Amino acid sequence: ARTGMDHVPTTSADFDKIKSALLVKANAGVAKMSGGRITKVPTSLEDAKVIGRALITEEGTKAWKRLTGMDHVPTTAADFDSIKAKLLEKASGDLSKITNGLITKVPTSLEEAKSLGLAIMKKEGTAAWKRVTGMDHVPTTSADFDKIKANLLAKANVGLRRITKGRITKVPTSLAEAKSMGQALITEEGTK
C-alpha cells in the first residue's frame, strides 16, 4: 500500500499512479531534508536548473546582504550610491586603524580633503599627512583630490578585503562594477 495500489501494476496508468504516489512522498522528504528550500524532486533537466538557480540566488543573496546590506544587485544610481556608502563605511574602521585614527573615512570632496589635510597638518604635522596620503601639501586642485582619494581608497580596499574575507575586494567605482561584483558574489556564495 506504500504505492497507493493493491495489485501489481500492469498498465501505464498503473505506473503513472505509482509514480505520482511516490513523487508526493519523495517531495515531502526532499522538502524536509532541505528545510523547505527545495519543495519537489525535479522531474526534468529544466526543473533541476530552475531549482538550482533559485537556490544559488537565495543563498548568494543572503551573503551579499550580510556584506553590503542590500538584498539585490544594484541596478540604479541610487543603489550604487547606497552600496558605495555602505562599503566605505565598512572600510572606514580599518582606514582609521591604518592611519592611527588620523583619517576615519575617505573624503568625498576637495573641500573635505582640504579641511582634513589642514586639521592633520596642524595637529600632527606635514610628515603625518604625507605618511597617510602620499602628499606633502593640502590639496588645492581636483588632481590633488583625486590623488588623495585614490591613495585612501587603496588603503580602504585592503581593509575591505580583510573585513569581507576576500569576498569583496574593493569599493566599486561605477554602477556597472557594483552590478558585476554583486552578480559574481551571489553566484560564488550561492554555490558553496
Shape: rod-shaped
Q: Which series of helices and strands comes N to C?
A: HHHHHHH
Radius of gyration: 27 Å
Output the structural class: mainly alpha
- Got a strand count? 0
The mean pLDDT is 88
Unreliable stretches (pLDDT < 50, length at least 5) are none
How much of the sequence lies in strands comes to under 5%
Distance between the termini: 40 Å
Major sheet characteristics: none
- Please estimate the helix content: 55-70%
Question: How many helices?
Answer: 7
Explain what this protein looks like in three dimensions.
- This protein is an all-alpha fold and 192 residues long.
- Helix content is 67%, strand content 0%.
- The chain is built from seven helices and no strands.
- Helix 2 (45-68) packs across helix 7 (175-190) and helix 4 (110-124) crosses helix 5.
- The longest helix has 24 residues, at 45-68.
- The relative contact order is 0.13.
List the helices and strands and how they pair.
Layout: H1 12-33, H2 45-68, H3 77-98, H4 110-124, H5 126-133, H6 142-163, H7 175-190
Descriptive keywords:
192 residues, mainly alpha, rod-shaped
What would a concise description of this structure say?
The chain is mainly alpha-helical and 192 residues long. It is built from seven helices and no strands.
